Amino acid sequence: MNDTAQIYDQGEYNFAYLDEQTKRMIRRAILKGIAIPGYQVPFASREMPMPYGWGTGGVQVTAAVLGKDDCLKMIDQGSDDTTNAVSLRGFFEKTAGVRTTYETSEATVIQTRHRIPEKTLTEDQILVFQVPIPEPLRFLEPRETETRKMHALEDYGLMHVKLYEDIAKNGHIATTYAYPVKVNDRYVMDPSPTPKFDNPKIDEMAALQLYGAGREKRIYAIPPYTKVKSLDFEDYPFEVQKFDKPCALCGAENVYLDEVILDDRGGRMFVCSDSDHCEERRAQGHTGPMAANPAAAQITEKNQRETTR
Amino acid sequence: MYVAVKGGETAIRNAHKLLAKRRRGDTSVPALTLEQIAEQLSHSVARVMGEGSLYDETLAALAIKQARGDLIEAAFLMRAYRTTLPRFGYSQPVDTARMLVERRISATYKDLPGGQVLGPTFDYSYRLLDFTLAAESDGAELPVETAEMRDEAMPRVTDLLGDEGLMEPDPITDVDAPVGDLTREPLAFPADRDLRLQNLARGDEGFLLALAYSTQRGYGRTHPFAGEIRYGEVEVEFFAEELGFAVTLGTIKVTECQMVNQFKGSSKAAPTFTRGYGLVFGQVERKAMSMAMVDRSMRWQELGEEQSAPAQDIEFVLSHSDNIQATGFVEHLKLPHYVDFQAELDLVRRMRAEWFEKRDQNPDEDAAAQEAAE
Predict the structure, then answer these.
(1) Residue A171 is nearest to which of B12, B188, B354, comparing CB atoms?
(2) Predicted TM-score of the model (pTM)
(3) What's the confidence (pLDDT) of residue B149?
(4) Taking CA atoms, what residue in B is nearest to A270?
(5) Active-site residue, A272 included
(6) What ipTM describes this predicted complex?
């Protein structure tokens, strides 16, 4: 799937791989999801030519919303050049022939796994999430029959007890990613395994958010400008992770950082997880404390080589 | 030591080239042909067709070749291909009573109408490595002696029992009722038996085998007898609206297993035997039997039994039987997770710092606790 030979105009497969009937079925689920923000809509997920767990839900949602004039950005762990982001981007280049980009502002559709871009998204953009386990209550109650009932009755006591027990045991809530949120004052939702650092971004976001879980056969959505509240307690308000250092390469603060191990002697640096954001800042002349370090330069160089294709 | 964390397009392309090379192996050894795989690895082909839910021996052989013999990977290739095919509709139910039988055994009767037909089986063979196969020559026809097929009907054992009222009747269903299809509608619970059987037919052989085995060892015992196992060719018919009658599309080879299980009866129903049903593509008896046993286990509710074992738990069984889903989710752990891991790293560091701080503040308490422990 990774040679860029394109098959979209050969007539073997439909535009963006899925047939139109399937896309229609998925779009219906999406529309229902938008109408009931945070509600998990069952849909007849198809087998895709990549394994379950690789983003089949996100890929199906993207395929259903993608048009010929769209410009697609594909990220994994915040970066455009992680292996699976490269592979999924290649899939749409091959099957849809759409324009792709690394630049957040240029994209009309952004498919992501585990991160939300640092740059504020706009009304013209759709953010598609790959979701492994859509059910926020799953690890508290493994049965689907039970969790559906709990959602229907808005019975989220179990979740609050879990968060309370965290505080009682650890002094703080020990959930760092896939941190549960309440959407539009109604449904408790799993924002997919993004770090809780990204939770504030999904509140009142201008862009449409679509969440696709292929293996679990669920789609859910958050329409633009919807209230999304991270669950917390009055005396233990929700807090995001804080990094005590700026990005080692571009000096950005208040962004999510990846820890990169530089050697086997404890050498490490923290760099932007959002690689496009980092590169843009460096292009603007921002530098971080380790920008001149040879080990850091190795990463920078490699990224640039991948970027300029 | 510098650890690369980001991979790129070049790396993927090169990895796939290397995979292609490794798949082919030593090029001085002749390449496998699809005919060889389909003819000589027929059990693999049958498993891939069944778990891939697509009856096509040549495509299954291709999938096995492409997957380097990894049968789950091969079934996945079949599934991904199958899902792109147009749907004409659903076939008529196959009539296994009209099967062109190659093997038919019953463990419940010594002899029965139609007879016991052993057919090609590993049963009763000594599992000794046959070193003559290591130097097998081509072309020589293998002489086989088979009894002449008795020209008589081969009724299903369950039908024989049914005549006497000893066997629960086949469930009567409305012919026009829509067939459940979990490839078109997401699986919802509670799932009816048609969906359960479809799920099991696509399910992983190993998973079903282990579940069936667990029922034999006491986790949800169902007292099964292999009422009948038959393997052979059946016709697949499709009702053509334009013609107004069913036309035969072709034949497929299937294994059918009817397990006969005890049922003590209740205030409303007289004691009788009940059934578990298994039907799979090709000669895959192990799976057909496992399927029948798990099917019967999952019927606890309708038969008024107690639920106590994993094999009876419909949601548990159906949610985890699909090996394409299972392997995907297990293996996706290979994908990068460093953003989430970073969040956990941060939390563990913080919790450790708090732990050490607390310990250093109250060293006496620690010592006291140790004393108490001693």
Answers:
(1) B354
(2) 0.87
(3) 64
(4) B342
(5) yes
(6) 0.83
